[in-house]
């Protein structure tokens, strides 16, 4: 459907991006690492079309062309089966680039879960420990 197309949405001089690759999990699809947010020429954002130029087809030709070729911009990903693992590439990237905890309670719960996962990684050899002895954990 159209909802899974990554395209600019144009209204007069305003360009906003529809970025479904950022919320695929909500719809039961396997979540990929989202692409970077495209340039939407912020100079056009927030204009209402009553001021300045009205030659939007010329000014926004690049975005109009993208819209016209929208069928080639569909996000294709398999249906999610089961739960995503802690070390899924999406979650690894999320932990590197996002705010992890919104509340003190969330921070406590998240830190405990992360600590347990790190202990698990140590015991399975996923994390190299060098000279440290973790036999007591195993």
Using brief descriptors, characterize the structure shown.
7% strand, two-stranded antiparallel sheet, Aminotransferase-like plant mobile domain-containing protein, MAIN-like, AminoTfrase-like_pln_mobile, mainly alpha, 138 residues, 2 strands, single chain, elongated
Give the tally of β-strands: 2
Radius of gyration from CA coordinates: 22 Å
Query: Distance N terminus to C terminus?
Result: 49 Å
Q: Could you state the order of secondary-structure elements as H and E? A: EEHHHH
Q: What is the helical fraction, as a range of percent?
A: 25-40%
SS-derived structural category: mainly alpha
* Overall geometry: elongated
Largest sheet: 2 strands, antiparallel
Quickly describe the structure.
By secondary structure, this protein is mainly α.
Mind explaining what this structure looks like?
By secondary structure, the protein is mainly alpha-helical. It is built from 4 helices and 2 strands; from the N terminus they run E-E-H-H-H-H. Strands 1-2 form a two-stranded antiparallel ribbon. A hairpin with a 2-residue loop joins strand 1 and strand 2 (14-18). The chain is elongated. The chain starts with 6 loop residues before the first strand and ends in a 14-residue tail after the last helix. This is Aminotransferase-like plant mobile domain-containing protein. It holds the Pfam family PMD. One of its GO terms (biological process) is meristem maintenance.
């Amino acid at each position: 459907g159209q909802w899974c197309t990554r395209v600019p949405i144009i209204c007069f001089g305003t360009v906003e991006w529809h970025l479904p690759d950022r919320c695929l999990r909500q719809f039961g699809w396997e979540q990929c690492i989202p692409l970077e947010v495209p340039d939407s020429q912020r100079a056009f954002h927030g204009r209402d079309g009553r001021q300045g130029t009205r030659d939007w087809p010329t000014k926004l030709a690049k975005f109009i062309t993208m819209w016209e070729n929208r069928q080639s911009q569909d996000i294709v990903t398999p249906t999610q089966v089961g739960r995503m693992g802690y070390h899924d590439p999406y979650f690894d990237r999320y932990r590197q680039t996002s705010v992890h905890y919104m509340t003190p309670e969330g921070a406590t719960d998240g830190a405990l879960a992360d600590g347990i996962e790190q202990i698990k990684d140590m015991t399975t050899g996923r994390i190299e420990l060098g000279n440290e002895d973790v036999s007591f954990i195993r």
